[in-house]
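Action item from last week, closing it out:
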Amino acid sequence: MTPFANKGLLAAFSVISLLAGCGNNNAEQPWVAYHEQLATDLNLSTAIERFPPRNIGAFPDLQSRQIHVPEIRESLLNVYALRECQITSLVAARNNQLGRVAPPSQQWLYERTLWQRLSSCWNSEAVSELSDENRERLETLTLQKTAQLPAVSWNAIFESDEWEKSFSRASEPLNPPSTADFSQQLASLKYLYQMVLNQFSREWQQDSTTLENHLKTLQERPLTAEFLRSLLLAEQRLNEANNVLSEQSLSDDTCLQPWDNSWLISLEQHAEQWLISINQLFDTHNVTPPESIAEYQHSWLSMSNPSAPWQQFQTAQAAHEQLRNRFSTCAAA
């Protein structure tokens, strides 16, 4: 077979493979081109065989990712007795019809504001004006809300629809992200992280509009799932190339063309930054996470678990570099 015919056959196989493959064709294109380049360099008679990457895991359902927060009941008279703490109207708003059906994010804002007022009251001169009974009630309520707040903040983030949609399986790998900008999404993660870090600060003031806008930003695209799918796709395509390279016997006349993998380096950098931010938000909560969430984080988001996508990608990439280094680099034409 002539070199021209060989290249034509490889191109035909590449087109068939691309059309037959499932998922984002734009994400596949650089891999198709690279596999074709390798096949040409190695003078293969057929295209490198490609298979769909494994699917990402399903994010745990709502019930299994919640932390139970017991309801605290106080009579209106007891709440009114603490009116110097400025919690009466706040509690009333929480217990009306709209307050009871507020989304998790708004419940978080309520609980944090309530804690701030209780804590400020307990540390103010107003506490000396309370009766012994009401002072004890204030202390008990403050301690209860202090103990509950980390679980409330956990539920506010991980119970939300916005968070769940970031892990949607109805997603595709990212397009080659050399020019992609994820700064808004990273800023949203940073805001949530800062809000959790400062939830026991009486000075740090949260803002409802800012919180909802950041959650909306995370809802707009399933970015966590897209990064995971991109890593799984890269792992699969690298391993397919590795299988071919490992089977080739070395010869003086076989060389590999330089590989412009800047798009893959960019993917690696963005994915690392995203996974660090996601894990940071998981880990900053001072709670024992539900088992289903702990398992999901270990299996899919961990950067140290050898079986998780990040380390699987790293392993495939390191092996690929070693296999390429066995061959000389083709001289420029």
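Closing note: Confidence is low (pLDDT under 50) at residues 1-23.
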